[in-house]
Amino acid sequence: MSYSTFNRKKFDSMKEPMFFGENVNVARYDQQKHPIFEKLIEKQLSFFWRPEEVDLSNDRKDFQRLEEHEQHIFLSNLKYQTLLDSVQGRSPNVALLPIVSLPELETWIETWSFSETIHSRSYTHIIRNIVNDPTLIFDDIVTNEEITKRADSVSKYYDNLIEMVNLYNTMGFGTFNVPGKGDVEITMPKLKKALYLTVASVNVLEAVRFYVSFACSFGFAERTLMEGNAKIIKLIARDEALHLTGTQHMMNLMASGKDDPEMAIIAEECKDDVRNIFIEAAEQEKEWATYLFKDGSMIGLNAQILGQYVEYITNVRMQAVGLDTHFETKHNPIPWINAWLVSDNVQVAPQEAEISSYLVGQTDNSLDDSDFDDFDL
Amino acid sequence: MTLTSKQDISQKKEQMHRVLLGKKQILVTEDEPLLVQLERAGIHVEYQCREGYCSSCSIKLLWGNVSYPFEPLAWVQSGYLLACCAIVKSDIEIQFL
Ligand code: FES
Ligand SMILES: [Fe+2]
Ligand SMILES: [Fe+2]
């Protein structure tokens, strides 16, 4: 019941479920119940990068030359991503660490959250480079209605789980009156349901919500604008692709019943809820695209194309967690985005030469237009 | 040298498999993952990492066998394959989302 930072019980952590078993005591990685989380940790560590390695001096000039509606697109996306990573930099730790029961999963959660703090730091790096007063941008995140609407959706499942786990850790099972909220019933199935829905909503956050913003960043870069930003977004996208695999594994392990039989029943019960989380997020992202382009589109991208992309990527992500796809869109309307989303060490994209420059420091930030002749939008 | 390359060719021939995709039929070898061979045949496949960790290249496997030289980090749903790292081991039929 109550959380201990070093559980004194002797137990076999190989027999614990992922969550709501014993609190982890010894951080050991020589044996793992689910080796996938150890592999994710190693992969994430191999991805380590620092935003300061990316030279943004050209982005400052580019930004000043953008049309006003393009600046709106660029800044709004930055604000939205800042919100998402602010949430992700803390919430897996706050919500999941008190209830995790496997050392490899505990450390994956910490490693995952840590990488989100790099993302947050990179937004400060970007914003500092393009505007004189970053405070104006950061302050707007908590007041801009379009952003705060989304803040509610991405934090509500986390907040609910955190509140329930707090009650459980202090009071145990039962029905408790929470001021301003009324009666909250704490049972193990209810806790597990709150957890399952949280993991699903985090999967949607990382697997769907980021992608409109990614597409815009790469859309600018295809026109050789804001290329430093695109390099950073590429690194963020690589991390996010790993994070979404983490939550897909958690959801699929839960649904399989192999980790915790009771969780399989809950996953089955929650199927429609999870479908709705995906669909609702997709609709919100389509609205977001409309908001971005309210004063004008950018070359190669508009609200309709981005809407189709959201539907397409949502289908891909739903299938990955064993759900039937929801949207009619069967094709990626912006296939060029994949060349930007691919890992650095895999040779596909025409911009390969340019991308690798971040590795050797801040050297080559002045390619001329002819280097990008191969691009088609 | 000539001898070796002849051997290569005959070996490759033995490893050719048919991939059925709707009304299309693509011949593939066991030398490379399915994704690159589909791309070479002019078929667009969704991808992201091309390293087996993001599951974006997941395709329905209706029948037939594939194998993975390295266990992918992404979860592979039963009845699906990950095109970026799957080696086709028999004639197969696949279907996109
Ligand atoms: S492209 Fe990422 S798993 Fe295949
Ligand atoms: Fe992130
Ligand atoms: Fe993430």
Automatic annotation (TrEMBL), chain A:
Its cofactor is Fe cation. The keyword Oxidoreductase applies. It is an enzyme of class 1 (oxidoreductase). Its EC number is 1.17.4.1. Gene3D superfamilies: Ribonucleotide Reductase, subunit A. The keyword Oxidoreductase applies. PROSITE patterns: RIBORED_SMALL. GO terms for molecular function: ribonucleoside-diphosphate reductase activity, thioredoxin disulfide as acceptor. Keywords: Oxidoreductase. CDD domains: RNRR2 (cd01049). NCBIfam families: PRK09101.1 (NF006576). Belongs to the ribonucleoside diphosphate reductase small chain family. This is ribonucleoside-diphosphate reductase.
